[in-house]
Amino acid sequence: MAEQSFDLVVLGGGTGGYVAAIRAAQLGLSVAIVEKDKLGGTCLHRGCIPSKALLRSAELFADVKNGENYGVSAEKVSFHLEHAMARKQSIVEKLHRGVEFLMKKNQVEVIHGYGRLMGPSIFSPQAGAVRVENGEESQILTPRFTLIATGSSPRALPGLPFDGKLVLSSDDALQFERLPNSILIVGGGAIGVEWASMLSDFGVQVTLLEFLPRLLPQEDEEVSREVEKILKKRGVAVQTGAKVIPDSFRKQNDGMEIQYDLDGQQISIQADCMMVAVGRSANVDNLGIEATEIEIQRGVIQVDEHYRTREHNIFAIGDVIGGLQLAHVAAHEGIHAVETMAGLHTHPLVYRNIARCTYSRPEVASVGWTESEAKEAGYQLKIGKFPFSSIGKALVHGEAEGFVKMIADRETDDLLGVHIVGPHATDLISEAGLALFVNASAWEIGNMIHPHPTLSETLGEAALAVDGLALHM
């Protein structure tokens, strides 16, 4: 059995894992990544990138159909799923080749196979050695440090497993060979809202069910209401406070039927298929964790502020530790972890100051406190809102729905949170994130000169509106 030694072995080659590996290599550590599938992980192959490629196709299709509003006539406009899927795949493959190049450039050894942690053994006196199996072959890796970055998988409804045909995960939906005529989406978080937006733009009849009282429950309440209003306007049937009854699922000749409970009343709904988007479960099973002192609570690995587990040489990042299950979060957790391993002075991440994005139409982005969170924390607030409909660039682009909402501390003027629903919200939010990072006030954002005409003017006007000084409203 072959044995190799490294300074760091990373279990999982997704965004968090490969970024951590690059940073570790920059710091002079010898690094290996163990990956059972392809580098890039869920984000590149089954999540962020492919879904956003299809969302772009949906957005363009919607724009072309509305071309008359811009003086552009197009006859027999149609959507071809196979072409959109091919474009999606070409983007994924190009980025995959880029990640492979980065591994070679940084001399990170990629070992393909399934990796499991080992406890103390003849190979290492401490837990953290990794046994890698690839078919009939196996090898042992003995690192100084081990980083668990195995990600997560779509969570199914209890008693209703995914079958890839009638009951779909978001992974399954990315492999559509043809679009359904109708679909039921269970779960009104970011993934559910994105798919509802996309499929409705493709002409699919969409019903969106959410168990909680509102869509996007982690966002500001005004943002949630705006998103629901716009989706309904576009023909999406939205029902909040709805609890799906998995046992009621029935196959039909032309699809499926299931019931949901709404205020004690059981309501049946039929569709060609259903997609379940009720969250993701950490990939912690079959990793050999039971051979270590690593603690798991509520299905996720427990770590300290530097991502160290109860085994001092084993760290964990990304979806396997819960929290914000976002690619950019995992990447920075990985950077922090390896800098800690290298003995650098590190500061814990401030998760509230990390932007959250939903790539529906319109987009949603936020950073910092929501209004209700800030009130519950005891802040006295002053709030500014400004609509995109009052901005020239938004009208020029024909995307004037939505607003920017800015929340500040009445006593100190400190910026507490920024919430955007509208065109290019996911790009605009970085200005707000920087403002929170440098502890800027709303006054400073409002008095920074934003170029005209741009969508960023909405941020400046919302900041001025915090003190009742908005100029174009």
Concise account of the structure shown:
By secondary structure, this protein is of the alpha/beta class. The chain is 30% helix and 27% strand.
How does this structure look, described?
Strand 5 (130-134) and strand 6 (137-148) form a beta hairpin. The chain has helices spanning 15-26, 41-45, 48-65, 81-105, 170-173, 190-201, 221-233, 327-341, 371-376, 392-397, 425-437, 442-447, 457-465; strands at 2-11, 31-35, 109-112, 114-117, 130-134, 137-148, 152-154, 167-168, 182-186, 205-210, 237-240, 243-252, 255-262, 265-271, 273-276, 280-282, 296-297, 300-301, 314-316, 356-358, 363-368, 381-387, 403-409, 415-422. Strands 1, 2, 3, 4, 5, 6 and 19 form a seven-stranded mixed beta sheet that branches. The protein has a five-stranded parallel beta sheet with strand order 8-15-9-10-11. It has 13 helices and 24 strands. It is of the alpha/beta class.
- How much of the residues is beta strand, in percent? 25-35%
Question: What is the helix content?
Answer: 25-40%
Helix/strand structural class: alpha/beta
The average pLDDT is: 96
- pLDDT below 50 for ≥5 consecutive residues: which ranges? none
> What is the overall number of helices?
13
How many strands, what sense, and barrel or not for the largest sheet?
7 strands, mixed
N- to C-terminal separation?
72 Å
By DSSP, the count of extended strands is: 24
Overall shape: it is globular
Report Rg. 24 Å
